[in-house]
Structures are given as C-alpha cells and as structure tokens.
Design goal:
The complex is a heterodimer of chains A (459) and B (407). Chain A is of the alpha+beta class. Chain A has 14 helices and 17 strands. Chain A has 4 domains: 92 residues, Uridine Diphospho-n-acetylenolpyruvylglucosamine Reductase, domain 2 (2-Layer Sandwich); 131 residues, Uridine Diphospho-n-acetylenolpyruvylglucosamine Reductase, domain 3 (2-Layer Sandwich); 100 residues, Alpha-Beta Plaits (2-Layer Sandwich); 95 residues, Alpha-Beta Plaits (2-Layer Sandwich). Chain B is α/β, with parallel strands linked by helices and 407 residues long. In chain B, α18 links the parallel β10 and β11. Classes of the chains: A alpha+beta (459), B alpha/beta (407).
C-alpha cells in the first residue's frame, strides 16, 4: 500500500487528496515565495488521526507541513513531496471555562469564527491578527501572534496557557496545568517545570502539529472609546505611543498609520496627514472617560486631536486594516519589531527614506515599496514594509522578492527584530551562533528525521 | 482563451482568505461562501474563491490537466459574488470602507473557467446540459415547447409587440413563463401595469431565453449567438425600455449583452417601474397588508447590478407592511443558493443554502420573505418544502398586486 492509500485508510478518502489541481492550491501562502507543490493534502478530523499521520510520515521520513489558513506572509511553504496537514476540520471549540477564563479550542478555527462564539457568551480573546477573519488560532500561535489587543496584552503567545501537540513520532504532548492526571484543567502555563508551551510558540510547525490550544479570555469590556491624532513627525508619533503605554492607559489597539505612501494609490481619497495614530481604549463605564481624558492630555502634547471617528472606524474594521492597499497589485510584506524609545523614530525616518529609494531604484519594474508603520505591541512596535507588485509579471515578481530582501536587510541593520521567520529570515537566524545551535538541538530531539516543515526557520 | 483576459485579476489574488471566512457580528456577517459553509467537504481550498483563483492560475500556467472532478469543483459555486464583495483588494485602507467591488472579477473568472471546461468537453454538469440543450432547441431551458410560453397569458389581453408598437416591452423570461409553480406572477405584473395605464406589450411565443443559463454555465459560444439574435430582435422593436421581473434576465441583458452588441433601449427591473408609478400616483393602494416582511436581495440584482432600493421602496410604500432588514443585508447579503447553475447542478447543496437563508429570514420575525427573482422563488419554495417554517414567500410583484388590485 502506498503512502496515500495508508493515509486514506487513516482519515477516509474524502479527507485526503493527491490530485494535481487540488494540491496545487496548497503550494503557496500569502507571501511572495513560490512554494513547491505538495504530494498530498490531508484534512484530519481527530487528534488520533493526526497522531497516525505523523507516525506514518515519520516512519517513511516524509516531510509534513501543518497548515492553518495559508495566510502567512513570511514564506512558510511546502517542499517537494511534502504532506500538507490542513487543520481546517480541527475547528471545534472544546470548552469555555468561565471560572478560569479559558477557552480550549482546536487550532483550525478562525479568529472570526471563535469571536462569534465567544461574543455570544459575553467573552473575547485578547490578541488577534490583522487577518483574523481568515487566520486560524493555531497558525497565529505558531508564529507568536500579534495584532489588535497587542498594545495591552502583548503577543498571542502570552495569552496561551497550554497546548496539545502531536510530536513527529505520533506521541501526544500536553503542556501546562492540564497535564495533571488529577486536575486536568488549563489555567496555568508554568506547571510541571519548564515552559514547554513556549517551545512551540513561534516554532512555525517545525516541531510538531498543534491540535489544541488553551487561550486566555476575558469578559467583553463594559465600554470602548477612541481617539485619533495627527502628527507631523515620527518623533512625536512614536513618543506619544510610548507615553500612553507608560501611563498604563488600557489601550486595546494603538495603530500608527503612515498615510503618505497611500497618495500613490488614491491622491484624492487618502488622508494627507503624514502620520495618524488611532487609539482604542477599554474600561468600565464609570472610568473610561477618565482614561480618555488622560489619553488626550498626554497625546495632545505631541499631536493634534482629530476626534474619535477615524479611530472608531479603524476599530470596527480592525481585522481588515493592515495591508489592504491592494488596488495596485499584490503585496509582499515584511513585519518586524522595534522597541519603544527615541530609536523608533530614527528607525521610521530611515526606513521610510530607504523605501522611497527602493521605489526609485525599482522604478523600471513599477514596484512600490512602502513603509506602512504599524501598531503598538507591549513594549514596542510592530512595523512593516510592503512591496506592491504585479504577480502576473514574472520579472516584477522576481524584482519584488529582491526589493523585499533589500528592505528586510536594511531594517535588520537599522535595529529591527525579526519575529516571524518562515523562510524570509531563515538565513539571519542561522547566523545567531549558539542560539541557532540550541534551536537545532531542540529540533533534533523532537524531530530527529527532520520531517516537520523543513526549510522553515532555516532548520 | 477567455481566461487570459483576467490574468491580472487572477494573479492579483492576495491569498488573504477573506473569501473563505469573515465574521462581522455588528453587520450580521458570519459567513461568506455558501459552498464552503454548506457543502459537506467545503473546507477544501477549491470550494471557495481563493482556491478557484489558484486553479485559474494553474490553468494559465498549464500546471495540471483539466479533469471531470476539477470541473465539478468549478461548477460547485453559485457565482453569488460575495467573495468579490469581501475581497481585500476591494477594501480602502484609508477610508476603512469597501470600495466598488465590481473591480473584482471572481465571478467572471469562474465563468471563464467554465467556458474553458465546456470548450474542452468537461462542462457543463449533466443536469445543466439538459437546460443548455433545451435553450438551443426550444428557446427556453425548461424543455418546454415554444408554443406554451404564453400559457400564463390565458384570458389576458396584452399587446403583441411583434405586430404593434409600445413604449415598454415586458420581457417575462423563461422561468416565470414556464414554471407552473410561479407562473401566476406575470399576470399580476400585467395587472399592475394595466392598472397604471402603462403602454406595454410582450413578444409572446417569439420571446427567447436571454441566455443567462448559457453564460453562467460556460456555453459561451451559444450565449453569444443567442445574445446577438436577441439584440437584433429587441433593437428592432423601437421600445423605450425593456422591463422584466426576472433578475437573471435583467443582469444578462443589462450587464452582459453590451459586451456582445449595443442596445437601443433601457433595461429596467419591473420594481424600478413600480417605484416610479407609485411616486407618480399611478398605482393606488386599495388594501392594507398587515404583515412583517423581509426582503432578500437576489445576487443578480444586488451584488451583480447594484440594485437594492427600488424593491425595498415598493414594499415600504405598501400600506400595512412592516419591512424589516435581514442581516447581513444588501451587498453583504447571503445567497439563496439558486443561482449560477448551483440549483441545476447540485440540488441538495442549493437546498441547504436556501434553508440557511430562510432561517435568517425567520430570525427577523417576518411573516413573509419577499424577493424579486424567479430563481430565488424556486429555490425558496424547495427550501420551504424541506423545513417547518412559519413564513411564506412572495415576490414583490405579488405583494404589490395584492394591495393595488386586491388579488
């Protein structure tokens, strides 16, 4: 029996395909990287099926790529002959524990779907990506996860209390307090010695297939309010964001938009403020007004208050904001982190300048290289650069990848911190000496046959 | 290959997956793609738009051969266009609003793929083939003789535009003309037009299918041939406007025919004329209809033609009617499952989608679900037969006639 037949016997014929036109659809993510066409795609419906698939792949040394929604922007694409495990049918919410404020869910559910379920019970998750509508809980956690909510709650990794992971040999690993045979409830991540949950956070599918995640949830806030400010300089915008964080104002979303480049797309429609920041704050009804007053007092020292409407709309459409400047073409995006402080403004100015220079350099190929700024994440910023190109033109596509590499190198040199690695930052990770050696050792222990997402993270 | 025409749009897919799933509770949006949501295996990429765009790209790059099962995946789509509405390419970052979704061409791309499949012998689906062959032979998709097209006109005196002139042509369309379950609607439309002293006529047995079914299921050559014949016939009538209460005919003649040939008349949905007649005081209400009504936007009218208000305005003007919106609404409205060849190709799936939409209508507390499309009518009748629901379906024409004519 060949591998496909064996997998079919595990998951049933409707849940596996090696048809060329089917597997072709799983060869790419949302990055500019052209992946190889996998040998088959399998859609397990139970943890046991995932275990059997992984064991079989391990025994036959077949590469495996777990997939959430295929929306990674950093080149997490299959290699030739790989099995793609599509987690779309592992999409059930297992339980909502209102006592411990934990939601235990399978990884394939999208944030949008989970939000609908939680919302009806009066709860919410804490951090969701900009592409939450189609992005999955599993995919986001596997790449650390930032987005709306990050200004106050940090990374999605910080909001996860435990996991169930199928290791390459098919064993099921449980992390966190739910491991207890006597009280298997998720409420503490740091139970039973080392933080093994953290080992899988950001591992991007290189160590195992996540099959269950325990997420922190909170009650829906009593009130939400908004404020928008315009700034003339990076210094003032960056400083204002940092000061709001320092003042411990409960800012759910701190979105700093660089609108200058959007003039290229629509000179009439785009706001002409160089930089705008939208703040969304949360709190109880009786104190949110105090927070807002304090927010305005702080930020008005740096920029002009424009009222709440733009920020309100930005919040309402919070999962559609970033990277939606697609009328010009396809977007390749490189996100990275920059810490709060004076260096952030210097970084913004420099990277914006370099972006303009690259647009000029690649003028012949009609590329648009944008610095789009980004949003607050705990103690720093998540910024991003976009390269907009026409993917139907193979030369432009190639040049876009080159431009992206150039802007990425420059950002790194200027102090940007890579955090979603994929294949984009793999080479940079490999230069990190002992750190990368330890990553490799983890990999060798958990995945000695190197079947899990080969190439991703440079492993 | 027609697909080449859409190369930029196909490669322009950002692969963001918004067409797969989006939830905006405040707008009542919980689902995007009817096939992804209601087909038992709809989780596979190729059952929602991103995967279909990937297939189109693969076809352009000659990555795989065409096959029967690939064809089935391409035909398993109601071409409702909700994926176009929710496409991220369509979203203006700076205004945080959706812009003109007609910049997206997902529906045209799927139709172009179907045209290729027909050309290569993989399409249409078996049941759809019966319909397209019937259009060729009988001038209608319902395998009925040309002579019975006017069965609905019995006892009615209507101008024959083959013999005399009129201001408007009432283009009935095959479905309202032939389907015995719903062919009581055209006489009501005639009653309303007569009540308002509108100068109109019909083509009787000389009316031919608009070709919508051909266009939607990929029989492009037959469609172009039929459209040319129809354009010649319709242009010769000297009418000011063609009016129809078929959303499919409306979309096809108004949006698709100009690609084939120039029209010398305006194309109106009948509800647009009703609205005008009500405003001019030419339609007078006799009877109150004390019912709660919710309106379903047919995809051919709404998403495809940006036609949302006239049917609502007509319903709102009927005394007694309490019109309530069913969310998601207008361009975000979910399809009934009856269009794009889904009902003829995949009956069970179309019913499931129809049932889901009916449940949405029930949530509004409405007594009546109304729409302005014979395909929606057909599909909702099937859906109603598959669930116990205290709701009835009525076309806007029926409700208006009930109030104006009293029958």
């Amino acid at each position: 029996m060949d591998l496909a037949n064996q997998i079919e016997s595990i998951v049933g014929a409707p849940n596996v395909s090696k048809k060329p036109w089917v597997v072709w659809g799983y060869s790419k993510d949302a990055s500019a990287v052209e992946g190889a066409v996998p040998s088959m795609v399998v859609m397990p419906t139970t943890v046991e099926e995932v275990q059997a698939i992984m064991k079989l792949a391990n025994d036959t040394k077949t590469p495996v790529f777990p997939r959430g929604s295929g929306t990674a922007l950093w080149g997490a694409v299959p290699v030739e002959g790989a099995i793609v495990i599509d987690t779309a049918k592992l999409n059930k919410v297992k339980r909502i524990d209102e006592e411990t404020l934990v939601c235990v869910t399978e990884p394939g559910i999208t944030f949008g779907e989970l939000d609908a379920i939680l919302h009806k019970s009066g709860y919410r998750f804490l951090v969701a990506p900009e592409n939450a509508q189609s992005g999955t809980i599993g995919g986001h956690f596997a790449s650390h996860g930032t987005g709306t909510g990050s200004a106050i709650y940090g990374y999605q990794g910080d909001c996860v209390l435990g996991l169930k992971v199928v290791l390459p040999n098919g064993e099921l690993l449980i992390t966190g307090s739910a491991l207890s045979p006597h009280n298997p409830r998720h409420f503490c991540r740091y139970a039973f010695a080392n933080d093994l949950t953290g080992v899988f956070c950001g591992s991007e599918g290189t160590l195992g297939t996540i099959v269950e995640i325990a997420l922190k949830i909170e009650r829906l806030p009593e009130a939400i309010d908004w404020a928008t400010f315009r700034f003339d300089h990076w210094e003032s915008a960056c400083e204002a964001g940092m000061m709001v964080r320092r003042a411990r104002i409960p800012c759910l979303h701190l979105f700093m938009g660089h609108f200058g480049p959007l003039d290229v797309i629509d000179p009439k429609g785009a706001p002409h403020d160089p930089i705008r920041t939208n703040f969304t704050i949360e709190g109880d009804k009786d104190i949110i007004g105090i927070y807002k007053k304090k927010l305005i007092e702080i930020v008005q020292q740096y920029g002009e208050y424009l009222g709440e409407e733009a920020a309100r709309r930005s919040w309402m459409e919070r999962w559609r904001t970033m990277g939606t400047m697609f009328t010009l073409g396809v977007r390749a995006m490189i996100p990275y982190l920059v810490p709060f402080g004076k260096g952030a403004a210097i970084f913004c100015r420099e990277i914006d300048k370099v972006s303009h220079e690259l647009t000029e350099k690649y003028k012949e190929y009609k590329l648009n290289v944008f610095f789009v700024a980004g949003f607050g994440v705990d103690r720093g910023w998540l910024f991003a650069n976009n390269v907009i190109y026409d993917e139907s033109d193979s030369i432009q596509h190639q040049k876009a990848k080159e431009a992206l590499r150039e802007i990425q190198d420059k950002a790194y040199e200027l102090g940007a911190i890579p955090y979603r690695i994929g294949t984009y930052w793999a080479k940079d990770l490999q230069q990190l000496g002992p750190y990368f050696d330890v990553l490799k050792k983890f990999k060798e222990v958990l995945d000695p046959n190197h079947i899990m997402s080969p190439g991703v993270l440079g492993l | 290959m027609e697909l080449e025409k859409w190369r930029k749009e196909i490669y322009g897919c950002q692969r963001c997956g918004w067409c797969k799933a989006s939830t905006y509770l405040d707008q009542g949006i919980e689902k995007i793609c009817p096939v992804r949501e209601y087909y038992s295996d709809g989780f596979w990429e190729h059952f929602f738009s991103r995967g279909k765009m990937a297939i189109a790209r693969g076809v352009l790059e000659n990555r795989f051969p065409l096959t029967d099962d690939l064809a089935e995946a391409i035909y398993m789509c109601s071409t409702c266009g909700n994926c176009e509405v929710h496409c991220s390419r369509n979203y203006a970052y700076y205004t945080l609003k959706f812009i003109d979704h007609k910049n997206n061409r997902n529906v045209e791309i799927i139709e172009a793929l179907r045209a290729l499949l027909v050309e290569k012998g993989y399409g249409p689906m078996k049941n759809q083939l019966l319909l397209t062959q019937s259009v060729e032979v009988n001038g209608n998709p319902w395998q009925q003789p040309k002579t019975t097209r006017t069965r609905w006109t019995r006892k009615l005196k209507i101008k024959d535009l083959n013999k005399e002139k009129a201001r408007y042509l009432y283009f009935v369309g095959c479905t309202f003309a032939y389907d015995n379950n719903i062919n009581f609607v055209p006489p009501k439309a005639v009653g309303l037009l007569n009540a308002a002293n509108v100068d109109f006529g019909i083509l009787g047995t000389q009316e031919k299918c608009c070709g919508s079914i051909l266009k939607r299921t990929g029989s492009k050559k037959l469609f172009v041939k039929l459209a040319k014949e129809n354009i010649e016939q319709l242009n010769s009538l000297g009418i000011e406007a063609l009016i129809t209460n078929c959303a499919g005919c409306y979309k096809t003649i108004r949006n698709d025919y100009p690609e084939v040939g120039k029209l010398n008349f305006k194309v109106m949905h009948v509800t647009e004329l009703y609205e005008q007649l009500i405003q001019e005081g030419k339609l007078k209400f006799k009877k109150e209809i004390a019912k709660r009504v919710t309106y379903h936007d047919p995809c051919h009218l709404g998403k495809h033609s940006d036609f949302y208000d006239p049917p609502r305005n007509v319903l709102k003007s009927i005394p007694g009617i309490d019109l309530v919106e069913m969310y998601p609404t207008r361009e975000h409205g979910f399809c009934c499952g009856g269009g794009g060849g889904l009902a003829s190709g995949f009956r069970d799936l179309a019913t499931k989608v129809g049932v889901a939409k009916l449940k949405k209508a029930l949530e509004t507390g409405a007594d009546i679900l109304s729409s302005a499309c014979p395909f929606c009518y057909q599909n909702f009748l099937v859906a109603l037969g598959n669930m116990e629901a205290k709701i009835t379906f009525k076309d806007v024409t029926e409700l208006l006639a009930d109030s104006v004519i009293g029958s």
